[in-house]
Design goal:
Layout (H helix, E strand, L loop, with lengths): L16 E5 L5 H14 L3 E4 L8 H7 L2 E5 L6 E4 L9 E4 L2 E2 L4 E2 L4 H4 L6 E4 L2 H12 L8 E4 L10 H4 L2 H9 L4 E7 L16 E7 L2 H7 E2 L4 H13 L3 E9 L5 H15 L4 E6 L6 H8 L4 H5 L4 E3 L2 E3 L2 H19 L3 E4 L4 H6 L14
Parallel strand pairs: 1-2, 1-3, 3-8, 5-9, 9-10, 10-11, 11-13, 13-14, 14-17
Antiparallel strand pairs: 4-5, 6-8, 7-12, 15-16
Helix pairs in contact: 8-9, 9-12
Length: about 350
C-alpha cells in the first residue's frame, strides 16, 4: 500500500468550542470547566441541545467541539466480543468520541448520529458506580476499568481536569484499577496525584509514516513516547498498543524505528499489537470525511474474517512475528499480546504459550 499526503486540514487547537447543555449538565462541573476555557481563551456557551452533523466542513469543525452533558445510562458496562476474540472486560464510559482526527477510527461508525466529542460531567453518579463496582465479587485481585474504549480520556484533560477527580478516588480502592488508553500528551495533571499504582497509562502508537498520513491532529509518536517516559518516572505503570498496524512497502524499517524509540525511552509492562480491521461499512464514513484516503483503495485488498475486513493471515502473522522479535530483542521477555485475533493467529505468531493478557485487562 502506498501512502500519499491528503489535503491539509484546517489547523486549530484540539478544542475550539465548548458547549454545555441547559438543564442536562451538572452546574458545578460546568462552571469549573468554563473557568478553564476562559483561561485558555476557548469559547464556552450554553445550548438547548447537542449540535447535529451537517456537511463535510461541519464534520471538520466538529472535531474541535467538546460537549458537556450528564450521562443518563450507566457509566460502567461490560464488553464481550461478539466473536469471542476478546477477553471480557469492563469499560468506564466518561467520553464519547474523540477530538483527534484519525482516518481509520471506528468511532465514525459508533457515533455517526452524534459525531461531536462528548464529556459526561455528573461525576458524583460515576463515583457511586465505582463504589458499587468495587463491592462486586470479581474473583480477581484487581478488576480493570477501561476508559479508552469509546474516546480518548486524556485528549481534553487540560480543560476537564477529569483525571484529578477519578485517579485519586480509585487510588483508595482495594480491588479496582483504571486504564487510560490515549494518544494524548496532556499529562500535566497527573504528576502530583496519589495514584497508589491503581492507574495504568497505555499509549496508542504507530510508526511515523502512518501517524503523519492518517493520524491528523494527534501528537507525533515520539512525543507520545516521551510523555510515557515522564509518566513512568512519576510511578505509573505504562503500556503500549501498536494498533492498527499496516502492511506497506518499507513497513519493517518504519516499525523497527518505532520499537527502537520505545526501548530507548521507556520500559513498558506490556505490548498489545493489532492490525487494521475495519468493520463492514466503515469505509463509507472514511470516504465522507477523507474522500482521497488511501484506506478506500486498501479496502478492496482485504479479506473477510470474523466479522471484519483484514490483511491475509500470512501478512498478519509476519507482522506479529517480526514485531515480537524486535520487542524481545530490545526489551527482553516483556509480555506481547494480540488484539482481537483468533486463536490460530496467536499460535502461528508464536504467542500461544503466553497468558493471553492483553491491554484491556490486568
Amino acid at each position: 500500500m502506498e501512502f500519499v499526503t491528503p489535503k491539509k486540514l484546517i489547523q486549530h487547537r484540539l478544542v475550539s468550542q465548548v458547549y454545555a447543555i441547559k438543564g442536562r449538565t451538572d452546574m458545578e462541573s460546568a462552571e469549573r470547566i468554563r473557568k478553564n476555557c476562559e483561561k485558555l481563551g476557548i469559547p464556552f456557551t450554553w445550548e438547548n441541545e447537542i449540535p447535529r452533523a451537517g456537511t463535510l466542513s461541519k464534520l471538520e469543525r466538529e472535531r474541535g467541539i467538546l460537549v458537556l452533558i450528564n450521562r443518563r445510562s450507566p457509566f460502567i458496562d461490560s464488553f464481550k466480543h461478539p466473536k469471542g476474540l476478546c477477553y471480557p472486560f469492563h469499560k468506564l464510559s466518561v467520553h464519547n468520541n474523540c477530538n483527534f482526527w484519525c482516518e481509520y477510527c471506528y468511532l465514525y461508525m459508533t457515533f455517526f448520529m452524534r459525531p461531536q466529542s462528548i464529556h459526561f460531567v455528573n461525576y458524583e453518579d460515576m463515583l457511586k458506580e465505582i463504589d458499587d463496582f468495587s463491592k462486586l465479587n470479581i474473583n480477581r485481585k484487581f478488576q480493570l476499568l477501561n476508559l479508552g474504549e469509546l474516546g480518548d480520556p486524556l485528549a481534553t484533560d487540560d480543560l476537564t481536569g477529569f483525571s484529578r477527580i477519578v485517579i485519586p478516588y480509585v487510588a483508595k480502592k482495594d480491588n479496582v484499577k483504571l486504564l487510560f488508553l490515549t494518544k494524548s500528551i496532556q499529562i500535566a495533571n497527573l504528576f502530583d496525584l496519589e495514584h497508589n499504582n491503581r492507574t495504568i497509562l497505555s499509549w496508542s502508537l504507530n510508526c511515523d509514516l502512518i501517524a503523519e498520513k492518517l493520524e491528523h491532529r494527534a501528537p507525533p509518536p515520539l512525543e507520545r513516547i516521551k510523555a510515557a517516559m515522564k509518566a513512568q518516572k512519576a510511578g505509573y505503570e505504562i503500556r503500549f498498543r501498536i494498533d492498527p498496524l499496516f502492511w506497506f512497502e518499507g513497513w519493517q524499517k518504519q516499525y523497527a524505528s518505532l520499537i527502537e524509540n520505545i526501548a530507548h525511552y521507556t520500559t513498558p509492562g506490556l505490548f498489545t499489537l493489532g492490525t487494521y480491521r475495519p468493520s463492514q461499512g466503515l469505509v463509507n464514513h472514511i470516504r465522507a470525511r477523507f474522500p482521497k484516503s488511501n484506506l478506500i483503495k486498501l479496502e478492496e485488498k482485504l479479506v473477510q474474517d470474523a466479522g471484519k475486513k483484514r490483511f491475509s493471515d500470512d501478512r498478519r502473522i509476519e507482522i506479529y512475528r517480526y514485531l515480537t522479535g524486535l520487542i524481545r530483542d530490545k526489551m527482553g521477555k516483556v509480555k506481547v499480546a494480540l488484539c482481537k485475533e483468533p486463536k490460530r493467529i496467536w499460535q502461528a505468531s508464536g504467542l500461544d504459550n503466553e497468558d493471553r493478557i492483553c491491554n484491556c485487562i490486568d
